[in-house]
Amino acid sequence: MSLADDLALAALRRIDPERAHGLALAALRMGLGPHPGPVTSGRLACRVAGLALPNPVGLAAGFDKNAVALRGISRLGFGFVEVGAVTPRPQPGNPRPRLFRLTEDAAAINRFGFNNEGMETVAARLAARRPGVIGLNLGANKDSEDRAGDFAKVLARCGANLDFATVNVSSPNTERLRELQGKAALAGLLARVTEANAALPRPLPIFLKIAPDLGLDELADIVAVAEGAGLAGIVATNTTLSRDGLKSAFRDEKGGLSGAPLFEKSTRVLAQLAGMTRLPLIGVGGIGSAEDAYAKIRAGASAVQLYTALVYRGAGLAAEIARGLDALLERDGYANVAQAVGTGRAAWT
């Protein structure tokens, strides 16, 4: 990072975390921040679930919930970007404060509760988006009487201007949402989503994002349902409810924990899934370096996503990780990242 980047990060860390996040999005909307341009090579370019990616390093959902900064984000070096989560109706989410920096742990806890401006507003922004691989994280309104229907509604409204969509049943911040990961409930939900997808002018790859706090039997059920529904892949994982080993004074705040402490738990789940299915997997959780991204890929991920590390490492991190990953692949003799997928899975199982 440059000295200017270091100073900007230091200034943002002195501000309330949610306000700092808003300022970062505003800066990206104005074209501020690094502009490394496309980061790609013959080793990095890949296809995941039919998506042609310049590199396998993506932005996870939650950073740009309302698709307000796609122009700026598209210049940061990500191979793909996921916005949202978005619900049919706008909702404010949970009361503030609801985002906490755990600096000593290089982590964050959030309990946002799907705060977003609703599918109509986001659909209009997506219709005017810049080129690039863009996906949407689908959510349900907190007070909905038909949560499965909510996921289908958002996909039907926004799908024409997307490249992929992710069904998010793993956020810990909407009451009873994680119950939709159960076998019967999940099968019913995905049936509604796949029906809505089939009605789109161009059906999309649909992913399922799962929690890291699942046992082997639960993972096996999820794999069976995902494969039965014809999903394109699984995103592993969302935030965790675990607080093991944390040092920060904020460690007991309610919400989902993300960042460095999630790395081992999420990577282990990823590797377990890779032993259960041939569906493409996207590895998320605790990635802060090229070495972390490479470990996820070797554990079974065809692509990766990051978010929390941007808070600590700055907006240039995506390009840094992609270039570092390219060097690691070259070092180990891989002509393409796809050849490295799953080669280190045994170390995590």
What's the topology here?
Blueprint: H1 3-12, H2 17-29, E1 46-48, E2 51-53, E3 57-59, H3 70-73, E4 80-86, E5 99-102, E6 107-110, H4 119-127, E7 134-138, H5 147-158, E8 164-168, H6 183-198, E9 206-210, H7 216-228, E10 233-236, E11 256-259, H8 263-274, E12 281-284, H9 290-299, E13 303-306, H10 309-313, H11 317-331
Parallel strand pairs: 3-4, 3-13, 4-7, 7-8, 8-9, 9-10, 10-12, 12-13
Antiparallel strand pairs: 1-2, 5-6, 6-11
Helix pairs in contact: 5-6, 6-7, 8-9, 9-11
Residue stretches low in confidence (pLDDT < 50, at least 5 long) are none
**Fraction of residues in β-strands:** 15-25%
> What is the N-to-C order of secondary-structure elements (H for helix, E for strand)?
HHEEEHEEEHEHEHEHEEHEHEHH
What's the number of domains? 1
The amount of helix comes to 25-40%
Structural class: alpha/beta
Whole-number average pLDDT?
93
Strand order of the largest sheet: 3-4-7-8-9-10-12-13
Question: What sort of overall outline do the alpha carbons produce when their principal axes are compared?
Answer: globular
Overall CATH class: Alpha Beta
- What is the CATH topology descriptor? TIM Barrel
Major sheet size, sense and barrel closure: 8 strands, parallel, barrel
Please name the CATH architecture: Alpha-Beta Barrel
Question: How far is the N terminus from the C terminus?
Answer: 35 Å
> Considering the protein shown, what is the CATH homologous superfamily?
Aldolase class I
Number of helices: 11
Would you report the number of β strands? 13
Radius of gyration: 18 Å
Protein model, in words:
Helices cover 34% and strands 16% of the residues. With 349 residues, the protein is α/β, with parallel strands linked by helices. The chain has a single domain, classed as TIM Barrel (Alpha-Beta Barrel), CATH 3.20.20.70. The model has no long low-confidence stretch (mean pLDDT 93).
